[in-house]
Amino acid sequence: MKAMILAAGRGRRLRPLTDQRPKSLVEVGGRPLIEWHLLALARAGFEGVVINLAWHGAQIRAHVGDGSAFGIAVSYSDEGEHALDTGGGIAYALAMLGSDPFAVINADVLTDYPLESLLQHQPEAAHLVLVPNPAHNPEGDFALADGRVSTTGESRYTFAGIGVYHPELFAHHGQGKYRLIEALAPALAGERVTGELYEGLWIDVGTPARLELARRSCT
Q1: Residue-range domain boundaries for the chain
Q2: Does residue 11 register a pLDDT over 70?
Q3: 2-217 maps to which CATH number?
Q4: What is the DSSP letter of 139?
Q5: 81 near 54, Cβ under 8 Å?
Q6: What phi, psi does 133 have (nearest 5°)?
Q7: Greatest CA separation for the chain
Q8: pTM over 0.70
Q9: Phi, psi of 104 (to 5 degrees)
Q10: Alpha-carbon distance 22 to 16, whole Å?
Q11: What is the per-residue pLDDT across 126-177, written as a single tens digit (0 to 9) for each?
Q12: String of DSSP letters for 24-79
């Protein structure tokens, strides 16, 4: 299975740290965020990883290179100056990801989720990893019941930014700039999205306060 790291975002809430560098190169625990994911994907046994680029993308390419330093082959999907958002970015990289289901992880999360467990999933549409709702997202994103993810329900959790997707999910939606939820919506309505709850370490490193929390968790 191949994987994709979403690393094209601007990271506005982390300014000024992200004015001159991409969010994925912000350091946590002595190494850039993206390195944690590359090393974890290599340990898990993924075939290779595609990284999408936009804001200061050349810095990511220069730092990561071909991935040999991290034990995994890396290729790049360069979106130019204007990022295509989560859904559009994945769709733009489909030719590099192949015809089989692939894993995607947001570059701006710190987690000890066992990525090797994603290899067992071959979803009809998608498989999402959810986490208990953090303080910044108390209402959650999705409901989870009997291993199925939906938009309504009592037990609501937060999307971890980790999932496995069938390429048809995006091929049917088309190209352009759009959010992941827009591609997921028809599959969610058709009860074709599975999910799991992970209760280990997970931090969305999206603000200075959460960056500090992530750094403390690595000490």
Answers
A1: 2-217
A2: no
A3: 3.90.550.10
A4: T
A5: yes
A6: -65, 125
A7: 46
A8: yes
A9: -135, 140
A10: 11
A11: 999 999 999 889 999 999 999 999 999 888 999 999 999 999 999 888 789 9
A12: GGSEETTEEHHHHHHHHHHHHT-SEEEEEE-TTHHHHHHHHTTSGGGTS-EEEEE-
